[in-house]
Design goal:
alpha+beta, 141 residues, 3-stranded antiparallel beta sheet
Length: 141
């Protein structure tokens, strides 16, 4: 178990709860300054291994359990202050990378993360097709 686990719905989130989810949208909060970061992370990563002189693709669990975001300032703060000064909350579990991209951007825009000094987020980049979201009920007008 890690010192500072990911939380989901008020409970510790562990590998055995991943089920058929591919990634998640999260919020990391610096509990000293209350500054936040909204991002997404995949549960799995691709790795390559040479077997009988052939390159083989493998899917392995990513570093999600020890992950503290991709923002350089956030990562430096976690290293300087200590990871115990940060809370890590999973906002949404996602069944596709496209779904994670959509909901990450939606959360970032909802709080004006790029415009706010209360967020570590520096940029928002998203590219999602409707077909990436086919398993989610579409909203009717």
């Amino acid at each position: 178990m890690y010192d500072n686990p990911w939380m989901y719905n008020g409970n510790n989130f562990t590998s055995d709860l991943i089920a058929d989810y591919v990634s998640f949208v999260y919020c990391i909060t610096n509990t000293v300054t209350n500054k936040k970061y909204i991002g997404k992370k995949s549960f799995y990563a691709r790795k390559y291994k040479v077997v009988k002189k052939k390159r083989k693709k493998l899917t392995v669990e990513s570093d999600w359990q020890t992950y503290y975001g991709s923002n350089e300032i956030l990562v430096n703060d976690a290293a300087t202050l200590g990871t115990d000064k940060f809370s890590r909350v999973i906002l949404r579990l996602c069944k596709s990378k496209g779904e994670a991209s959509y909901f990450e951007a939606k959360e970032q825009f909802a709080v004006d993360a790029v415009l706010s000094v209360n967020y570590y987020n520096n940029w928002i980049s998203v590219r999602v097709r409707k077909s990436h979201m086919s398993h989610i009920k579409l909203v009717s007008e």
